[in-house]
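Quick one:
INPUT:
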């Protein structure tokens, strides 16, 4: 291609634009047809972004925080599913035997529904947060109290709950694969199926879930034990519709990439799956994105719920495991989650075929070819923005950033620290980039982010694991 020739993608776009103009003229139609169709715009909240694939994005809500306007404005804006953090548990809803109290549960329920959200019910049969009277029961008396409790709570919310966590945390941690010892377990091994059969009869409209933690890692004995129970229930016709994976990830129970295998394996048994109480110690953006992508990869994954709004709302606030800071600002993990829900590359690409600068958010400096060099292998750096041709990049349909017409922004490797250079365009994935709505530019081959290793003139530009920090965010103008 000669130095004055237009890059082919630009030509293609010009021809396509001309055809549209022609079609609009011939048909005599108005504005609706006079512009080419554009790609689906990225959504700007978690709930709306999840809804693009028919899923929800939820949070735990605490009734006591509904008077905090920072809390409610974030919760209302971002989420479209709600779980009562404590208010529908056994101690809250049946403080004395046979005397039900839905005051706090209804506060959460009403806030959710009045704001257009659905509700997950949590939880009906559990060894923890039992009222004192239940803790001291055993045997057939306790079994009957469990049944009465399920009936009492489910009839109050009949027809109103999307999913109920019927049984919570019934398996032991560690390598035994055994049931957890509890007063409910000691009523007989069939207590779980009795709970599910009772629940189905009480409200046939709710999906009935088994919910637990430490069942995300496919290799763990607890995961296999729950899997075997669900398989057995499905074989014997015990009514179960879904499995909730709490997904409280931390150093003792870290995220593992086999989580997707777990979700797929349970779904293959014929149940839906959901991520029900997600929080991640330290809130690594990459780990959050991985979890979201695991759910998106499994058609029976209904949605994701995080266990609280801001870090300061978390039951593990010291782990800063959530998506918002205490002051309500969005954390890097928020951007990672939103971007993953939007398909990872759904940001609007830069001006169609237009040329422009690529400016770094941390430094305000531009992506610049060293000394305006044109040879293959010339390095790319940060430099004060100016109008020179060595800072004029054109984003093509193919996902390249072209400069001087026929040279491409090129990664000569796939690891952290790989230097970015220009190279003759050849169509390889190491010359293709995804421009994301959060300002990151991700190499298609490496999955790593375009990263400025510093802020000054002459700073090299490299590939690096995405951190969503300002040195990895760019505006393309
Ligand atoms: C936690 C709440 O977040 C706390 O406020 C409460 O003190 C204890 O329970 N697994 C569950 C949730 O199923 O109900 C728990 O919620 C966290 C672990």
């Amino acid at each position: 291609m000669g130095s004055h020739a237009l890059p082919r993608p630009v030509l293609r776009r010009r021809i396509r634009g001309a055809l549209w103009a022609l079609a609009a003229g011939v048909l005599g139609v108005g504005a609706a047809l006079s512009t080419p169709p554009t790609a689906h715009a990225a959504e700007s909240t978690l709930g709306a972004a999840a809804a693009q694939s028919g899923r929800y994005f939820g949070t735990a809500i605490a009734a006591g925080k509904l008077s905090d306007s920072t809390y409610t404005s974030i919760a209302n804006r971002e989420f479209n599913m709600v779980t009562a953090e404590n208010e529908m548990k056994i101690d809250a809803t049946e403080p004395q035997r046979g005397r039900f109290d839905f005051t706090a549960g209804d506060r959460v329920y009403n806030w959710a529904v009045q704001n257009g959200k659905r509700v997950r019910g949590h939880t009906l049969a559990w060894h923890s947060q039992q009222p004192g009277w239940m803790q001291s029961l055993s045997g057939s008396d306790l079994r009957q109290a469990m049944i009465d409790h399920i009936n009492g709570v489910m009839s109050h919310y009949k027809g109103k709950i999307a999913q109920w966590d019927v049984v919570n945390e019934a398996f032991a941690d560690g390598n035994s694969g055994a049931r957890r010892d509890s007063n409910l377990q000691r009523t007989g091994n069939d207590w779980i199926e009795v709970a599910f059969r009772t629940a189905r009869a009480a409200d046939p409209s709710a999906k009935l879930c088994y919910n637990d933690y430490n069942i995300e890692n496919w290799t763990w004995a607890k995961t296999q034990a729950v899997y075997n129970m669900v398989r057995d229930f499905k074989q014997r016709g015990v009514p179960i519709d879904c499995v909730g994976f709490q997904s409280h990830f931390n150093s003792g129970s870290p995220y593992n990439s086999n989580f997707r295998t777990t979700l797929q394996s349970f779904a293959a048994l014929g149940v839906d799956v959901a991520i029900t109480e997600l929080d991640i110690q330290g809130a690594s953006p990459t780990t959050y994105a991985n979890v979201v992508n695991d759910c998106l990869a499994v058609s029976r994954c209904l949605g994701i719920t995080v266990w609280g709004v801001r870090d300061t709302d978390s039951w593990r606030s010291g782990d800063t495991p959530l998506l918002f800071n205490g002051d309500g600002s969005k954390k890097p993990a928020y951007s990672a989650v939103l971007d993953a829900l939007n398909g990872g590359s759904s940001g609007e690409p830069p001006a169609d075929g237009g040329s422009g600068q690529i400016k770094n958010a941390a430094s305000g400096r531009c992506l610049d070819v060293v000394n305006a060099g044109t040879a293959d292998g010339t390095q790319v750096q940060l430099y004060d923005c100016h109008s020179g041709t060595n800072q004029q990049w054109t984003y093509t349909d193919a996902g390249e950033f072209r400069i001087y017409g026929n040279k491409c922004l090129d990664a000569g490797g796939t690891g952290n620290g790989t230097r970015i250079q220009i190279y003759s365009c050849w169509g390889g994935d190491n010359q293709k980039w995804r421009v994301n709505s959060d300002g990151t530019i991700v190499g298609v081959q490496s999955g790593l982010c375009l990263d400025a290793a510093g802020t000054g003139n002459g700073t090299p530009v490299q590939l690096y694991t995405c951190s969503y920090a300002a040195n990895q965010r760019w505006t393309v103008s």
